[in-house]
Amino acid sequence: MNQVSAAPVTEPTVLCEKCKQPISRTALIGSGYVCPLCGKYNRIPARTRIELLTDKGSFCEHNATLVGENPIGFPGYEEKIRTAREKSGEYEGVICGEAEIGGERCCIFVMESAFMMGSMGTAVGDKIALLFEYATAKKLPVIGYTVSGGARMQEGMLSLMQMAKVSGAVKHHSEAGLFYLVCLTDPTTGGVTASFAMLGDMIIAEPGALIGFAGRRVIEQVMGQKLPDEFQSAEFQMKNGFVDAIVPREEQRNFLSRMLRLHTGR
Amino acid sequence: MEAYEKIKKTRQSGRATSVDYINGIFEEFTELHGDRRFADDHAVLAGIATLNGVPVTVIGIEKGKNIQERMERNFGCVSPEGYRKALRLMKQAEKFGRPVICIVDTQGAYAGAGAEERGAGAAIAENLYEMMTLRTPIISLMIGEGGSGGALALAVADRVWMLENAYYSVVSPEACASILYKDAGKAPEAAEHLRLMANDLYGFGIVEKVIPEPESFTDAEGTKHFFHQLRRDLSREIKHLSHMSRDTLLSERYEKYRKIGRYESDTAPTPAKARRVFFGRK
Known about the structure:
CATH superfamily of chain B: 2-enoyl-CoA Hydratase, Chain A, domain 1
Structural class of chain B: alpha/beta
Number of domains of chain A: 2
Shape of chain A: globular
Helix content of chain B: 40-55%
Oligomer: heterodimer
CATH architecture of the largest domain in chain A: Alpha-Beta Complex
CATH architecture of chain B: Alpha-Beta Complex
Shape of chain B: globular
Largest sheet of chain A: 7 strands, mixed
Number of strands of chain A: 9
Order of helices and strands of chain B: HHEEEHHEHHEHEEHHHEHHE
Number of helices of chain A: 9
CATH class of the largest domain in chain A: Alpha Beta
Distance between the termini of chain B: 40 Å
Distance between the termini of chain A: 38 Å
CATH superfamily of the largest domain in chain A: 2-enoyl-CoA Hydratase, Chain A, domain 1
Number of strands of chain B: 9
Radius of gyration of chain A: 18 Å
CATH topology of the largest domain in chain A: 2-enoyl-CoA Hydratase, Chain A, domain 1
Largest interface: A-B, 81 and 62 residues
CATH topology of chain B: 2-enoyl-CoA Hydratase, Chain A, domain 1
Number of domains of chain B: 1
């Protein structure tokens, strides 16, 4: 993933997203991006997550080069996209494809936080809709990993329409009797929460993930009061009945393969 | 900054709200309350009525006209139970083969702590999901403010018609400006860039019809004429949609959304990693 440069004498470190302590990159990767000091689930590059979850060599990407345009001519958007590509090493904010997990064939999409915080524009919406349509045609289950700040402002109303488009594709997949499991990771908010993130037959979440619709600051403004820390956490969502289970990262692969196995044979 | 001026006007009181449309277009309106789960959200005014003698289900977001009504209607900010009431009545309409007419006018879904606790996101998601395959015609009228997901939750429809001075946006111009430019004062600029007015959206294929407005909604004669026209057009369109086979209706509804932001898909799946040489991850 990360090229090891020739020069540095000391081991490269990164700062934990929560405790801000420097951690050696190798140690962080070794722990599945869980901070060894504070236990915070740091964000994982989408491609790494796919490697961690799927059977070795089984992943085949769909629409790898599908990219969007600047459909409403939003000033500065091309530049933003360019920066996001350099930062994430990806063309767009989601990776889609098919793979095997514990020998069970499935379609999988994983959103990429390093690409404009996984925001959903037309290309992201199109890739996910195409994946569900493919899965429906091939009678395959879908596993989804969400991480998103919501709909992508720079594509205006065309982004908002992706919520309807993907929800419709999920509905068709569901009506074909097929299984969709979604895992909500930190953060899953806005238009993604208000569409395919909440439409799984089974909705699981990572411990401590921020999951919500409206932004915390907006709600605090509306309420005129501070909200407790656990507000909109995965645990909060489970308590309120919107998440089936909170599954630690190291158990997810087994969990997915078990659930896929239980939903075959239709 | 034309768009922002229009938006400011649209937000002022004095425009017709859902109540006026219900009284001006339909007959025999009977309000039906509650989501059968938790509560009755007063931001959503819904029930059964007739349109030119045809039974229909009408679901409107109502902002209220004076401060007291506005408080009671929560300023047209819908809570999860409001969306669930709407869905309950849409399902009822489907059962009895009644067309559904939604009237949308909201700055956005209610962003309170209680709304989050009761699943604002889940409620909106479920409406999008169910509306896409609801086996009865749906027409949504965007009459003023169309605030993001909170508006879309009543606007997955066979026809979306929009008043010429209404706006419908993924994000409020103020929020967009404060996020992108770190300055909410740049909202007029953001409003221009977001392409959120009826004519823009008609051009993108997101709305099917832009409805001319009367000079002013305080002019009784002009408003009466406006409702008369709208009633005639709605009645005609409902008749047309009702004559389509349900399967055609649903496939056209899906295709309408499906084609918004559609790109060429790759013909062959790419083996993993084959493309990573292109960009070096920093």
